[in-house]
Amino acid sequence: MYTPDLYKNENKEEIRTFLKENSFGILINQTNGRLCATHIPIELEVNAVGKEILQGHLSKLNPQAQGFAENDQVLVVFTGPHSYISSSWYDHENVPTWNYIAVHVYGRIKIVDEATSIEQLKKLVDKYEANSENPVRIENLSAKTMREARGIFGFEIEIDEIEATKKLSQNRDDHNYKNIISELEKTENPQAIAVAKEMSKCRK
To answer: 34-41 and 152-167: which strand pairing?
Structure first.
């Protein structure tokens, strides 16, 4: 991912928080000479030896997995808030642009056994059911329902490299920076407002 130095995010704790809060990613690899991509929840976890990894699962019918045996290298793309930035919001002539936050994770994927896959599912469901009035728990599902789990397989990705971009108008002076935030907030667009919130965190 091309990222000018000004927009590189090398704060490991910030990247870790971003991955946990924006865990619906795009898993990309090459299968049979074609690029393949699947949109799925992919969670940042710590393995048995204390190393951070990514975890997720795929349908056994997904042909993307055929490529894992031939080449285990994958890319996972995570995106956060993003918004168009109009140059009419500046006090000088310039070109429009786009503000966004994104993280690319490069690593090596391996398929895990069925028991590990079920444990991954339990963690995933518990995370997203935490605020439900009547939370679903994998442990409480019937054997008939759990037979559906046979149609998936879990995977782990050993992380080799992380590239993180946080492009939030860092190249603008305080006056224009504050004006961009103000204009984004006026849009009533949730993505734009989320960008404004992130910008406010970066510069008081």
So the answer is: unpaired
- The one-character DSSP state at 4 is -
| Res. 9: pLDDT tops 90 | yes
pTM as predicted: 0.93
Fold (CATH) for 5-169: Pnp Oxidase; Chain A (2.30.110)
Helix (H, G, I), strand (E, B) or coil at 141: coil
The residue extents of the domains of the chain are: 5-169
Burial class from Cβ neighbours inside 10 Å (0-12, 13-18, 19+) for residue 101 reads buried
Q: Which residue has the tokens 């690319």?
A: 104
pLDDT, tens digit, 9 for 90 and up, residues 15-46? 999 999 999 999 999 999 999 999 999 999 99
Task: Map tokens 């590990």 to a residue.
Answer: 116
The DSSP call for residue 138 is: G
CB 78 within 8 A of CB 87: no
